[in-house]
Specification:
homodimer; 202 residues; mainly alpha; 11 helices; 70% helix; disordered N terminus
Chain lengths: 202, 202
Protein backbone atom coordinates (compact mmCIF):
# COMPACT_ATOMS: atom_id res chain seq x y z
CA UNK A 1 0.00 0.00 0.00
CA UNK A 2 1.37 3.40 -0.98
CA UNK A 3 1.78 5.97 1.72
CA UNK A 4 -0.29 8.43 -0.32
CA UNK A 5 -3.22 5.97 -0.19
CA UNK A 6 -2.82 5.43 3.52
CA UNK A 7 -2.97 9.14 4.20
CA UNK A 8 -5.75 9.85 1.72
CA UNK A 9 -8.50 10.55 4.25
CA UNK A 10 -8.25 14.11 5.53
CA UNK A 11 -9.90 12.91 8.76
CA UNK A 12 -6.49 11.86 10.06
CA UNK A 13 -4.82 15.21 9.40
CA UNK A 14 -5.44 16.12 13.04
CA UNK A 15 -3.61 13.05 14.41
CA UNK A 16 -0.13 13.97 15.64
CA UNK A 17 2.71 13.21 15.58
CA UNK A 18 3.09 11.96 12.00
CA UNK A 19 4.01 8.41 13.17
CA UNK A 20 0.68 8.12 15.05
CA UNK A 21 -1.11 9.40 11.95
CA UNK A 22 0.59 6.71 9.86
CA UNK A 23 -0.52 4.04 12.36
CA UNK A 24 -4.14 5.16 12.25
CA UNK A 25 -4.19 5.21 8.46
CA UNK A 26 -2.55 1.76 8.37
CA UNK A 27 -5.08 0.37 10.87
CA UNK A 28 -8.04 1.74 8.88
CA UNK A 29 -6.68 0.07 5.79
CA UNK A 30 -6.05 -3.27 7.56
CA UNK A 31 -9.39 -3.32 9.42
CA UNK A 32 -11.22 -2.56 6.17
CA UNK A 33 -9.53 -5.47 4.41
CA UNK A 34 -9.42 -8.15 7.11
CA UNK A 35 -11.73 -6.94 9.87
CA UNK A 36 -10.68 -5.84 13.35
CA UNK A 37 -10.40 -9.38 14.69
CA UNK A 38 -8.49 -10.52 11.60
CA UNK A 39 -5.77 -7.86 12.03
CA UNK A 40 -2.83 -8.08 14.45
CA UNK A 41 -0.99 -5.13 16.02
CA UNK A 42 2.11 -6.51 14.30
CA UNK A 43 0.43 -6.11 10.90
CA UNK A 44 -0.66 -2.55 11.65
CA UNK A 45 2.86 -1.60 12.70
CA UNK A 46 4.38 -3.27 9.63
CA UNK A 47 1.96 -1.51 7.28
CA UNK A 48 2.88 1.79 8.91
CA UNK A 49 6.56 0.98 8.40
CA UNK A 50 7.49 0.61 12.04
CA UNK A 51 8.15 -2.03 14.72
CA UNK A 52 5.42 -3.30 17.09
CA UNK A 53 7.32 -1.54 19.91
CA UNK A 54 7.10 1.70 17.91
CA UNK A 55 3.34 1.36 17.86
CA UNK A 56 3.07 0.98 21.64
CA UNK A 57 4.73 4.40 22.02
CA UNK A 58 1.49 5.87 20.64
CA UNK A 59 -1.26 3.32 21.40
CA UNK A 60 -1.42 0.84 24.25
CA UNK A 61 -3.43 -1.74 22.30
CA UNK A 62 -5.25 -2.53 19.09
CA UNK A 63 -8.48 -1.52 20.88
CA UNK A 64 -6.96 1.92 21.58
CA UNK A 65 -6.34 2.34 17.86
CA UNK A 66 -9.96 1.38 17.09
CA UNK A 67 -11.13 3.83 19.75
CA UNK A 68 -9.09 6.67 18.19
CA UNK A 69 -10.58 5.91 14.77
CA UNK A 70 -14.11 5.74 16.20
CA UNK A 71 -13.68 8.96 18.18
CA UNK A 72 -12.36 10.97 15.23
CA UNK A 73 -14.91 9.50 12.82
CA UNK A 74 -17.91 10.12 15.05
CA UNK A 75 -16.74 13.64 15.97
CA UNK A 76 -16.46 14.53 12.29
CA UNK A 77 -19.83 13.01 11.32
CA UNK A 78 -21.50 14.81 14.24
CA UNK A 79 -19.93 18.12 13.19
CA UNK A 80 -21.19 17.58 9.63
CA UNK A 81 -24.84 17.12 10.62
CA UNK A 82 -24.73 19.88 13.27
CA UNK A 83 -23.41 22.39 10.74
CA UNK A 84 -26.06 21.23 8.28
CA UNK A 85 -29.09 21.81 10.53
CA UNK A 86 -27.77 24.99 12.18
CA UNK A 87 -29.98 27.94 11.32
CA UNK A 88 -32.58 25.91 9.39
CA UNK A 89 -35.91 27.35 10.53
CA UNK A 90 -38.22 24.95 8.70
CA UNK A 91 -38.09 21.45 10.31
CA UNK A 92 -38.53 19.75 6.89
CA UNK A 93 -35.57 21.73 5.54
CA UNK A 94 -33.57 20.80 8.66
CA UNK A 95 -34.33 17.08 8.24
CA UNK A 96 -33.40 17.33 4.56
CA UNK A 97 -30.13 19.05 5.50
CA UNK A 98 -29.39 16.36 8.10
CA UNK A 99 -30.04 13.54 5.61
CA UNK A 100 -27.99 15.30 2.91
CA UNK A 101 -25.00 15.79 5.22
CA UNK A 102 -25.23 12.27 6.66
CA UNK A 103 -25.47 10.58 3.23
CA UNK A 104 -22.58 12.61 1.81
CA UNK A 105 -20.44 11.91 4.89
CA UNK A 106 -21.09 8.14 4.88
CA UNK A 107 -20.35 7.88 1.14
CA UNK A 108 -17.24 10.06 1.30
CA UNK A 109 -15.87 8.25 4.34
CA UNK A 110 -17.27 4.79 3.55
CA UNK A 111 -14.13 2.90 4.63
CA UNK A 112 -14.00 4.53 8.05
CA UNK A 113 -17.80 4.39 8.31
CA UNK A 114 -17.78 0.61 7.77
CA UNK A 115 -15.29 0.16 10.60
CA UNK A 116 -17.11 2.41 13.05
CA UNK A 117 -20.53 0.94 12.21
CA UNK A 118 -19.68 -2.74 12.32
CA UNK A 119 -16.63 -3.20 14.58
CA UNK A 120 -17.60 -1.17 17.65
CA UNK A 121 -18.49 -4.21 19.75
CA UNK A 122 -14.76 -4.98 19.85
CA UNK A 123 -14.19 -1.95 22.12
CA UNK A 124 -13.83 -2.44 25.88
CA UNK A 125 -17.02 -1.56 27.78
CA UNK A 126 -16.02 1.95 28.91
CA UNK A 127 -14.83 2.98 25.44
CA UNK A 128 -17.89 1.40 23.86
CA UNK A 129 -20.17 3.43 26.14
CA UNK A 130 -18.31 6.64 25.26
CA UNK A 131 -18.76 6.01 21.54
CA UNK A 132 -22.39 5.06 22.11
CA UNK A 133 -22.98 8.45 23.74
CA UNK A 134 -21.50 10.13 20.65
CA UNK A 135 -23.82 8.08 18.44
CA UNK A 136 -26.77 9.02 20.63
CA UNK A 137 -25.85 12.71 20.26
CA UNK A 138 -25.83 12.24 16.47
CA UNK A 139 -29.34 10.75 16.63
CA UNK A 140 -30.55 13.55 18.91
CA UNK A 141 -29.62 16.18 16.31
CA UNK A 142 -32.18 14.54 14.02
CA UNK A 143 -34.77 13.76 16.70
CA UNK A 144 -34.85 17.40 17.83
CA UNK A 145 -35.83 18.47 14.31
CA UNK A 146 -38.44 15.71 14.01
CA UNK A 147 -40.03 16.74 17.33
CA UNK A 148 -40.02 20.36 16.22
CA UNK A 149 -41.87 19.36 13.05
CA UNK A 150 -44.37 17.28 15.03
CA UNK A 151 -45.02 20.19 17.39
CA UNK A 152 -45.72 22.58 14.51
CA UNK A 153 -47.77 19.98 12.64
CA UNK A 154 -45.61 19.77 9.49
CA UNK A 155 -44.71 16.14 10.33
CA UNK A 156 -47.09 13.25 11.01
CA UNK A 157 -45.51 9.94 12.07
CA UNK A 158 -46.82 6.63 13.37
CA UNK A 159 -43.77 5.92 15.60
CA UNK A 160 -41.22 8.69 16.20
CA UNK A 161 -38.34 6.38 17.09
CA UNK A 162 -38.78 4.11 14.08
CA UNK A 163 -39.27 7.05 11.70
CA UNK A 164 -36.06 8.54 13.09
CA UNK A 165 -34.17 5.26 12.64
CA UNK A 166 -35.48 5.05 9.07
CA UNK A 167 -34.00 8.48 8.26
CA UNK A 168 -30.72 7.48 9.94
CA UNK A 169 -30.58 4.20 7.95
CA UNK A 170 -30.71 6.09 4.66
CA UNK A 171 -27.30 7.64 5.37
CA UNK A 172 -25.66 4.94 7.48
CA UNK A 173 -26.43 2.06 5.09
CA UNK A 174 -24.33 3.80 2.41
CA UNK A 175 -21.28 2.64 4.38
CA UNK A 176 -22.24 -0.94 3.46
CA UNK A 177 -22.43 -0.65 -0.31
CA UNK A 178 -20.77 2.57 -1.43
CA UNK A 179 -17.24 2.48 -2.81
CA UNK A 180 -14.95 4.98 -4.53
CA UNK A 181 -15.89 6.02 -8.02
CA UNK A 182 -19.53 4.92 -7.79
CA UNK A 183 -22.02 7.04 -9.69
CA UNK A 184 -23.91 8.97 -8.18
CA UNK A 185 -21.18 10.91 -6.34
CA UNK A 186 -21.35 11.45 -2.56
CA UNK A 187 -22.60 15.01 -3.16
CA UNK A 188 -25.34 13.88 -5.56
CA UNK A 189 -26.38 11.06 -3.21
CA UNK A 190 -26.62 13.67 -0.46
CA UNK A 191 -28.97 15.77 -2.60
CA UNK A 192 -31.18 12.79 -3.48
CA UNK A 193 -31.37 11.47 0.10
CA UNK A 194 -31.97 15.00 1.37
CA UNK A 195 -35.06 15.14 -0.85
CA UNK A 196 -36.22 11.66 0.19
CA UNK A 197 -35.87 11.92 3.98
CA UNK A 198 -38.67 14.42 4.81
CA UNK A 199 -41.12 12.23 2.85
CA UNK A 200 -40.78 9.59 5.58
CA UNK A 201 -42.20 12.09 8.08
CA UNK A 202 -45.15 13.40 6.09
CA UNK B 1 -22.55 -22.23 23.94
CA UNK B 2 -25.49 -24.55 24.40
CA UNK B 3 -26.50 -26.69 21.50
CA UNK B 4 -30.03 -25.35 21.74
CA UNK B 5 -28.67 -21.83 21.09
CA UNK B 6 -26.56 -23.04 18.19
CA UNK B 7 -29.54 -24.63 16.52
CA UNK B 8 -31.98 -21.85 17.34
CA UNK B 9 -32.34 -20.46 13.80
CA UNK B 10 -34.79 -22.55 11.82
CA UNK B 11 -32.90 -21.53 8.65
CA UNK B 12 -30.48 -24.40 9.22
CA UNK B 13 -33.19 -27.07 9.56
CA UNK B 14 -32.64 -27.93 5.89
CA UNK B 15 -28.89 -28.59 6.31
CA UNK B 16 -28.17 -32.31 6.42
CA UNK B 17 -26.73 -34.44 7.87
CA UNK B 18 -27.01 -33.24 11.45
CA UNK B 19 -23.21 -32.87 11.82
CA UNK B 20 -23.13 -30.40 8.89
CA UNK B 21 -26.03 -28.54 10.49
CA UNK B 22 -24.08 -28.27 13.75
CA UNK B 23 -21.07 -26.89 11.87
CA UNK B 24 -23.13 -24.20 10.15
CA UNK B 25 -24.76 -23.13 13.40
CA UNK B 26 -21.35 -23.06 15.11
CA UNK B 27 -19.84 -20.99 12.29
CA UNK B 28 -22.70 -18.46 12.40
CA UNK B 29 -22.14 -18.08 16.12
CA UNK B 30 -18.35 -17.70 15.78
CA UNK B 31 -18.51 -15.30 12.80
CA UNK B 32 -21.05 -13.13 14.64
CA UNK B 33 -18.78 -12.89 17.68
CA UNK B 34 -15.30 -12.59 16.14
CA UNK B 35 -15.86 -11.88 12.47
CA UNK B 36 -15.08 -14.20 9.58
CA UNK B 37 -11.38 -13.32 9.52
CA UNK B 38 -11.13 -13.64 13.30
CA UNK B 39 -12.46 -17.22 13.30
CA UNK B 40 -10.42 -20.34 12.49
CA UNK B 41 -11.78 -23.60 11.06
CA UNK B 42 -10.42 -25.22 14.23
CA UNK B 43 -12.66 -23.00 16.37
CA UNK B 44 -15.72 -23.77 14.26
CA UNK B 45 -15.09 -27.51 14.55
CA UNK B 46 -14.49 -27.28 18.30
CA UNK B 47 -17.68 -25.27 18.85
CA UNK B 48 -19.59 -27.91 16.88
CA UNK B 49 -18.04 -30.62 19.08
CA UNK B 50 -15.92 -32.29 16.42
CA UNK B 51 -12.36 -32.46 15.12
CA UNK B 52 -11.06 -30.22 12.29
CA UNK B 53 -10.86 -33.38 10.15
CA UNK B 54 -14.55 -34.00 10.87
CA UNK B 55 -15.35 -30.59 9.45
CA UNK B 56 -13.54 -31.25 6.18
CA UNK B 57 -15.84 -34.23 5.57
CA UNK B 58 -18.61 -31.67 5.02
CA UNK B 59 -16.92 -28.43 3.94
CA UNK B 60 -13.62 -28.01 2.09
CA UNK B 61 -12.79 -24.67 3.68
CA UNK B 62 -13.98 -21.86 5.92
CA UNK B 63 -15.03 -20.00 2.75
CA UNK B 64 -17.27 -22.97 1.81
CA UNK B 65 -18.99 -22.65 5.18
CA UNK B 66 -19.53 -18.92 4.61
CA UNK B 67 -20.88 -19.67 1.14
CA UNK B 68 -23.39 -22.22 2.54
CA UNK B 69 -24.58 -19.65 5.10
CA UNK B 70 -24.87 -16.93 2.45
CA UNK B 71 -26.70 -19.22 0.02
CA UNK B 72 -29.28 -20.38 2.55
CA UNK B 73 -29.74 -16.90 4.01
CA UNK B 74 -30.23 -15.20 0.64
CA UNK B 75 -32.53 -17.94 -0.63
CA UNK B 76 -34.76 -17.55 2.41
CA UNK B 77 -34.81 -13.72 2.29
CA UNK B 78 -35.65 -13.87 -1.43
CA UNK B 79 -38.49 -16.33 -0.80
CA UNK B 80 -39.86 -14.03 1.92
CA UNK B 81 -40.12 -10.95 -0.34
CA UNK B 82 -41.34 -12.96 -3.35
CA UNK B 83 -44.19 -14.45 -1.31
CA UNK B 84 -44.98 -10.99 0.05
CA UNK B 85 -45.42 -9.25 -3.32
CA UNK B 86 -47.10 -12.19 -5.08
CA UNK B 87 -50.63 -11.27 -6.09
CA UNK B 88 -50.44 -7.65 -4.91
CA UNK B 89 -52.15 -5.70 -7.68
CA UNK B 90 -51.54 -2.19 -6.39
CA UNK B 91 -47.80 -1.27 -6.76
CA UNK B 92 -47.88 0.77 -3.52
CA UNK B 93 -49.30 -2.24 -1.66
CA UNK B 94 -46.63 -4.43 -3.28
CA UNK B 95 -43.79 -2.10 -2.19
CA UNK B 96 -45.28 -1.98 1.31
CA UNK B 97 -45.43 -5.78 1.38
CA UNK B 98 -41.81 -6.01 0.18
CA UNK B 99 -40.60 -3.57 2.85
CA UNK B 100 -42.65 -5.32 5.53
CA UNK B 101 -41.24 -8.76 4.65
CA UNK B 102 -37.68 -7.48 4.29
CA UNK B 103 -37.71 -5.61 7.63
CA UNK B 104 -39.22 -8.55 9.49
CA UNK B 105 -36.71 -10.96 7.90
CA UNK B 106 -33.66 -8.80 8.69
CA UNK B 107 -34.77 -8.28 12.32
CA UNK B 108 -35.70 -11.94 12.86
CA UNK B 109 -32.46 -13.20 11.29
CA UNK B 110 -30.22 -10.31 12.37
CA UNK B 111 -27.24 -12.53 13.26
CA UNK B 112 -27.18 -14.27 9.88
CA UNK B 113 -28.05 -11.00 8.13
CA UNK B 114 -25.01 -9.27 9.67
CA UNK B 115 -22.72 -12.01 8.36
CA UNK B 116 -24.17 -12.07 4.86
CA UNK B 117 -24.25 -8.26 4.59
CA UNK B 118 -20.79 -7.47 5.87
CA UNK B 119 -18.55 -10.51 5.29
CA UNK B 120 -19.32 -11.39 1.66
CA UNK B 121 -16.08 -9.91 0.33
CA UNK B 122 -14.29 -12.83 2.00
CA UNK B 123 -15.81 -15.23 -0.58
CA UNK B 124 -13.71 -16.38 -3.56
CA UNK B 125 -14.60 -14.51 -6.75
CA UNK B 126 -16.88 -17.17 -8.31
CA UNK B 127 -18.85 -17.68 -5.10
CA UNK B 128 -19.05 -13.94 -4.54
CA UNK B 129 -20.50 -13.47 -8.04
CA UNK B 130 -23.10 -16.20 -7.40
CA UNK B 131 -24.23 -14.51 -4.19
CA UNK B 132 -24.22 -11.14 -5.91
CA UNK B 133 -26.63 -12.52 -8.51
CA UNK B 134 -28.93 -13.65 -5.70
CA UNK B 135 -28.77 -10.17 -4.17
CA UNK B 136 -29.52 -8.63 -7.54
CA UNK B 137 -32.59 -10.88 -7.88
CA UNK B 138 -33.76 -9.67 -4.45
CA UNK B 139 -33.43 -6.05 -5.63
CA UNK B 140 -35.24 -6.82 -8.88
CA UNK B 141 -38.33 -8.02 -6.99
CA UNK B 142 -38.60 -4.48 -5.60
CA UNK B 143 -37.57 -2.65 -8.79
CA UNK B 144 -40.25 -4.42 -10.81
CA UNK B 145 -42.93 -3.07 -8.46
CA UNK B 146 -41.41 0.43 -8.51
CA UNK B 147 -41.38 0.44 -12.33
CA UNK B 148 -44.97 -0.78 -12.37
CA UNK B 149 -45.94 2.12 -10.10
CA UNK B 150 -44.05 4.60 -12.28
CA UNK B 151 -45.79 3.29 -15.40
CA UNK B 152 -49.23 3.68 -13.85
CA UNK B 153 -48.36 7.08 -12.36
CA UNK B 154 -48.85 6.16 -8.68
CA UNK B 155 -45.11 6.70 -8.03
CA UNK B 156 -43.03 9.77 -8.82
CA UNK B 157 -39.29 9.51 -8.15
CA UNK B 158 -36.27 11.68 -8.91
CA UNK B 159 -33.85 8.74 -9.39
CA UNK B 160 -35.26 5.19 -9.62
CA UNK B 161 -32.06 3.43 -8.56
CA UNK B 162 -31.48 5.60 -5.50
CA UNK B 163 -35.15 5.44 -4.45
CA UNK B 164 -34.93 1.66 -4.74
CA UNK B 165 -31.73 1.53 -2.65
CA UNK B 166 -33.42 3.75 -0.05
CA UNK B 167 -36.28 1.24 0.31
CA UNK B 168 -33.77 -1.63 0.50
CA UNK B 169 -31.73 0.18 3.18
CA UNK B 170 -34.77 0.43 5.47
CA UNK B 171 -34.83 -3.37 5.84
CA UNK B 172 -31.14 -4.23 5.45
CA UNK B 173 -29.88 -1.70 8.00
CA UNK B 174 -31.88 -3.50 10.70
CA UNK B 175 -29.18 -6.17 10.59
CA UNK B 176 -26.74 -3.58 11.99
CA UNK B 177 -28.62 -2.48 15.10
CA UNK B 178 -31.39 -4.99 15.87
CA UNK B 179 -30.85 -7.62 18.54
CA UNK B 180 -33.06 -10.16 20.27
CA UNK B 181 -35.68 -8.82 22.62
CA UNK B 182 -35.69 -5.28 21.22
CA UNK B 183 -39.03 -3.49 21.24
CA UNK B 184 -40.61 -3.11 18.61
CA UNK B 185 -40.72 -6.78 17.62
CA UNK B 186 -39.68 -7.92 14.12
CA UNK B 187 -43.36 -8.17 13.14
CA UNK B 188 -44.18 -4.67 14.39
CA UNK B 189 -41.06 -3.24 12.71
CA UNK B 190 -42.25 -4.89 9.51
CA UNK B 191 -45.61 -3.15 9.78
CA UNK B 192 -44.06 0.25 10.47
CA UNK B 193 -41.49 -0.03 7.65
CA UNK B 194 -44.18 -1.33 5.33
CA UNK B 195 -46.11 1.88 5.93
CA UNK B 196 -43.01 4.07 5.50
CA UNK B 197 -41.56 2.60 2.29
CA UNK B 198 -44.20 3.73 -0.26
CA UNK B 199 -43.81 7.32 1.01
CA UNK B 200 -40.32 7.38 -0.48
CA UNK B 201 -41.84 6.85 -3.93
CA UNK B 202 -44.65 9.40 -3.80
Amino acid sequence: VEETTLLADELWAQVAPETARRLIAAAVDAFARHGYHGTSTREIAKLAGMSPAGMYVHYGSKADVLYEIAKIGHTDALAAVRHAVAGQEDPAAAVAAFARASATWHAQHHTVAKIIQYELTALPRKRFDEVRRMRRTFELVLEREIRRGLATGVFVVEDVRVASIAVLSLGIDLARWYHDGVDPSPMRLGELYGNLAPKLLQ
